[in-house]
Every structure is written in structure tokens, then in C-alpha cells.
Amino acid sequence: MNISRTEQRVLHVLALGGRIHHERTDGAKITAITCVTREGTVLSDCTLSVFSRLRKRRLIESRSGSPYRISKRGRLSVRAQLDNQG
């Protein structure tokens, strides 16, 4: 499966314990998202289009209205990379 660089970056943050908070309108459509790392910083690379692509491929999931986290399929798809907290 071809995953872009920004999608890989978001999946890597989620694999390290991050989450994606979402906001909905009156209907069921998601209008705004915020990707938060484990430390509490916001990842600016995570846009609504990247989020929808990850969700469409079932690489992220939400259970009973909780924030989106990486799915098992996403964990298997993410490429290993060094943790750049140096």
C-alpha cells in the first residue's frame, strides 16, 4: 500500500501514543481535527484531507466517539523510523 510522507508522519505519531480529536457539525460530518502527540503538542501536518485518507484506508479508528487512534492495520502499515526527539 502506498502511503505518502505526511500520512507516514501522522501514523508514526499515533503509533507512539498520539491521538486525533475531531469535531462534528449537527450532522455526522467531521469538520475539524486536531492531531495531538503523546507529549501534548499539536502536529500541523495532519489536515482534514490526510485524516480522511487514513480513515478511508482503515489505518485509524475511533471506538464509541473517542479520539481516533491507530488501528492494527495501521500499525502493520507504518514504516519503522527513528524517534527524532534528540
UniProtKB/TrEMBL annotation:
<dbReference type="InterPro" id="IPR018654">
    <property type="entry name" value="YjhX_toxin"/>
</dbReference>
<comment type="similarity">
    <text>Belongs to the UPF0386 family.</text>
</comment>
<dbReference type="Pfam" id="PF09857">
    <property type="entry name" value="YjhX_toxin"/>
</dbReference>
<protein>
    <recommendedName>
        <fullName>UPF0386 protein RM190_22850</fullName>
    </recommendedName>
</protein>
